[in-house]
Protein backbone atom coordinates (compact mmCIF):
# COMPACT_ATOMS: atom_id res chain seq x y z
CA UNK A 1 0.00 0.00 0.00
CA UNK A 2 1.19 3.52 -0.82
CA UNK A 3 0.77 6.30 1.75
CA UNK A 4 0.36 9.83 0.43
CA UNK A 5 1.29 13.03 2.23
CA UNK A 6 0.25 16.59 1.42
CA UNK A 7 1.78 17.94 -1.77
CA UNK A 8 2.86 14.54 -3.09
CA UNK A 9 2.09 13.73 -6.71
CA UNK A 10 1.95 10.09 -7.81
CA UNK A 11 1.92 8.73 -11.35
CA UNK A 12 -0.77 6.05 -11.16
CA UNK A 13 0.41 4.39 -14.37
CA UNK A 14 3.82 3.71 -12.84
CA UNK A 15 2.89 3.15 -9.20
CA UNK A 16 -0.38 1.24 -9.68
CA UNK A 17 -0.48 0.06 -13.31
CA UNK A 18 -3.27 -2.46 -12.64
CA UNK A 19 -5.60 0.13 -11.11
CA UNK A 20 -8.51 1.08 -13.34
CA UNK A 21 -11.71 0.50 -11.37
CA UNK A 22 -11.50 1.62 -7.76
CA UNK A 23 -13.46 2.42 -4.65
CA UNK A 24 -12.70 5.76 -3.06
CA UNK A 25 -13.47 5.60 0.65
CA UNK A 26 -13.53 8.57 3.02
CA UNK A 27 -13.90 8.57 6.78
CA UNK A 28 -13.74 10.93 9.76
CA UNK A 29 -14.66 11.33 13.43
CA UNK A 30 -15.92 14.22 15.51
CA UNK A 31 -13.29 15.53 17.92
CA UNK A 32 -15.10 14.87 21.22
CA UNK A 33 -12.33 16.30 23.42
CA UNK A 34 -12.64 19.80 21.96
CA UNK A 35 -16.38 19.58 21.22
CA UNK A 36 -18.12 17.68 24.03
CA UNK A 37 -21.58 18.95 23.03
CA UNK A 38 -21.24 17.86 19.40
CA UNK A 39 -22.28 14.35 18.39
CA UNK A 40 -21.94 12.36 15.18
CA UNK A 41 -25.72 12.60 14.84
CA UNK A 42 -25.61 16.31 13.99
CA UNK A 43 -22.32 16.41 12.10
CA UNK A 44 -22.72 15.69 8.39
CA UNK A 45 -19.78 15.66 5.98
CA UNK A 46 -20.34 15.16 2.26
CA UNK A 47 -17.90 13.80 -0.31
CA UNK A 48 -18.07 15.13 -3.88
CA UNK A 49 -16.17 14.81 -7.15
CA UNK A 50 -15.91 17.73 -9.58
CA UNK A 51 -15.29 16.57 -13.17
CA UNK A 52 -13.33 19.31 -14.93
CA UNK A 53 -12.44 19.91 -18.56
CA UNK A 54 -9.10 21.04 -19.96
CA UNK A 55 -9.80 24.61 -18.80
CA UNK A 56 -10.33 23.26 -15.25
CA UNK A 57 -14.02 24.15 -15.38
CA UNK A 58 -17.21 22.13 -15.07
CA UNK A 59 -18.79 21.40 -18.48
CA UNK A 60 -22.15 21.80 -16.68
CA UNK A 61 -23.76 21.28 -13.26
CA UNK A 62 -24.27 17.56 -13.91
CA UNK A 63 -20.50 17.04 -13.72
CA UNK A 64 -20.55 17.33 -9.93
CA UNK A 65 -21.07 13.87 -8.41
CA UNK A 66 -22.46 14.20 -4.87
CA UNK A 67 -25.41 13.19 -2.66
CA UNK A 68 -27.98 14.88 -4.95
CA UNK A 69 -26.39 13.68 -8.20
CA UNK A 70 -25.11 10.16 -7.58
CA UNK A 71 -23.89 9.31 -11.09
CA UNK A 72 -21.67 11.04 -13.63
CA UNK A 73 -23.57 12.15 -16.77
CA UNK A 74 -21.54 10.01 -19.18
CA UNK A 75 -23.30 6.97 -20.65
CA UNK A 76 -20.82 4.52 -19.06
CA UNK A 77 -21.15 6.03 -15.55
CA UNK A 78 -17.44 6.50 -14.88
CA UNK A 79 -18.13 7.82 -11.35
CA UNK A 80 -20.85 6.76 -8.91
CA UNK A 81 -21.51 8.06 -5.39
CA UNK A 82 -22.84 5.29 -3.16
CA UNK A 83 -25.07 7.54 -1.06
CA UNK A 84 -25.04 10.11 1.71
CA UNK A 85 -23.90 9.18 5.23
CA UNK A 86 -25.57 11.72 7.48
CA UNK A 87 -23.53 11.15 10.63
CA UNK A 88 -20.08 9.61 10.00
CA UNK A 89 -20.81 7.36 12.97
CA UNK A 90 -18.69 4.23 13.42
CA UNK A 91 -15.42 3.03 11.96
CA UNK A 92 -14.44 2.44 8.35
CA UNK A 93 -15.56 4.37 5.29
CA UNK A 94 -18.24 6.99 5.93
CA UNK A 95 -18.83 7.74 2.26
CA UNK A 96 -17.83 5.76 -0.82
CA UNK A 97 -17.43 6.77 -4.46
CA UNK A 98 -16.74 4.26 -7.23
CA UNK A 99 -14.77 5.31 -10.29
CA UNK A 100 -13.39 3.69 -13.42
CA UNK A 101 -10.67 5.72 -15.11
CA UNK A 102 -11.13 3.77 -18.36
CA UNK A 103 -14.65 5.16 -18.68
CA UNK A 104 -13.93 8.84 -17.96
CA UNK A 105 -14.88 10.79 -21.12
CA UNK A 106 -12.05 12.32 -23.15
CA UNK A 107 -13.23 15.86 -22.44
CA UNK A 108 -12.70 15.39 -18.69
CA UNK A 109 -9.10 16.09 -17.64
CA UNK A 110 -9.30 16.37 -13.87
CA UNK A 111 -11.31 14.85 -11.01
CA UNK A 112 -11.30 17.03 -7.90
CA UNK A 113 -12.18 15.14 -4.71
CA UNK A 114 -13.68 17.30 -1.98
CA UNK A 115 -15.45 17.03 1.35
CA UNK A 116 -17.80 19.69 2.72
CA UNK A 117 -19.70 20.15 5.97
CA UNK A 118 -23.45 20.20 5.37
CA UNK A 119 -25.17 23.29 6.83
CA UNK A 120 -21.86 24.28 8.45
CA UNK A 121 -22.75 27.94 8.99
CA UNK A 122 -26.17 27.16 10.41
CA UNK A 123 -24.78 24.56 12.81
CA UNK A 124 -21.56 26.47 13.55
CA UNK A 125 -19.41 23.54 12.40
CA UNK A 126 -15.91 23.58 10.87
CA UNK A 127 -13.05 21.19 10.15
CA UNK A 128 -11.36 22.09 13.42
CA UNK A 129 -14.03 19.85 14.96
CA UNK A 130 -13.03 16.83 12.83
CA UNK A 131 -10.28 14.28 13.47
CA UNK A 132 -8.99 11.01 12.01
CA UNK A 133 -10.03 12.03 8.49
CA UNK A 134 -8.72 9.85 5.67
CA UNK A 135 -9.04 9.10 1.99
CA UNK A 136 -8.27 5.60 0.70
CA UNK A 137 -8.35 3.85 -2.65
CA UNK A 138 -9.31 0.18 -2.93
CA UNK A 139 -8.71 -1.75 -6.14
CA UNK A 140 -12.08 -3.23 -7.15
CA UNK A 141 -10.43 -6.26 -8.81
CA UNK A 142 -8.15 -7.32 -5.95
CA UNK A 143 -10.27 -5.82 -3.10
CA UNK A 144 -7.00 -4.52 -1.65
CA UNK A 145 -6.35 -1.04 -0.28
CA UNK A 146 -3.66 0.31 -2.60
CA UNK A 147 -3.41 3.95 -1.56
CA UNK A 148 -4.14 5.90 1.63
CA UNK A 149 -4.01 9.57 2.58
CA UNK A 150 -4.43 10.43 6.27
CA UNK A 151 -5.20 14.11 6.80
CA UNK A 152 -2.86 15.11 9.59
CA UNK A 153 -3.36 18.82 8.87
CA UNK A 154 -4.77 21.08 11.54
CA UNK A 155 -7.82 22.84 10.14
CA UNK A 156 -9.67 25.53 12.05
CA UNK A 157 -12.52 27.55 10.57
CA UNK A 158 -12.60 25.94 7.11
CA UNK A 159 -15.88 24.31 6.12
CA UNK A 160 -14.66 22.53 2.96
CA UNK A 161 -11.48 20.69 2.04
CA UNK A 162 -10.13 19.83 -1.41
CA UNK A 163 -8.61 16.44 -0.59
CA UNK A 164 -6.94 15.47 -3.85
CA UNK A 165 -6.93 15.75 -7.62
CA UNK A 166 -6.75 12.91 -10.12
CA UNK A 167 -5.64 14.30 -13.46
CA UNK A 168 -4.63 13.18 -16.94
CA UNK A 169 -0.99 13.02 -17.96
CA UNK A 170 0.67 12.17 -21.27
CA UNK A 171 0.74 8.52 -20.23
CA UNK A 172 -2.48 8.14 -18.24
CA UNK A 173 -3.52 9.42 -14.80
CA UNK A 174 -1.81 10.84 -11.71
CA UNK A 175 -3.00 11.88 -8.24
CA UNK A 176 -1.96 14.81 -6.07
CA UNK A 177 -2.72 15.08 -2.35
CA UNK A 178 -3.82 18.63 -1.48
CA UNK A 179 -5.70 18.99 1.84
CA UNK A 180 -6.56 22.58 0.91
CA UNK A 181 -9.05 24.14 3.31
CA UNK A 182 -11.71 26.52 1.99
CA UNK A 183 -14.23 28.69 3.78
CA UNK A 184 -17.56 27.89 2.16
CA UNK A 185 -19.65 24.93 1.09
CA UNK A 186 -20.58 23.07 -2.07
CA UNK A 187 -21.89 26.22 -3.77
CA UNK A 188 -18.61 28.07 -3.17
CA UNK A 189 -16.63 25.13 -4.54
CA UNK A 190 -18.95 24.97 -7.54
CA UNK A 191 -18.46 28.66 -8.31
CA UNK A 192 -14.68 28.10 -8.24
CA UNK A 193 -15.04 25.68 -11.14
CA UNK A 194 -17.84 27.37 -13.08
CA UNK A 195 -16.94 28.90 -16.44
UniProtKB/TrEMBL annotation:
- Ranges where the TerD domain occurs: 2-193
Q: Which organism is it from?
A: Crocosphaera chwakensis CCY0110
InterPro entries on file: Stress/Tellurium_Resist, TerD
Name under which the protein is recorded? YceE
Q: Name one Pfam family in it.
A: TerD
> Which residues does UniProt call coiled coil?
none
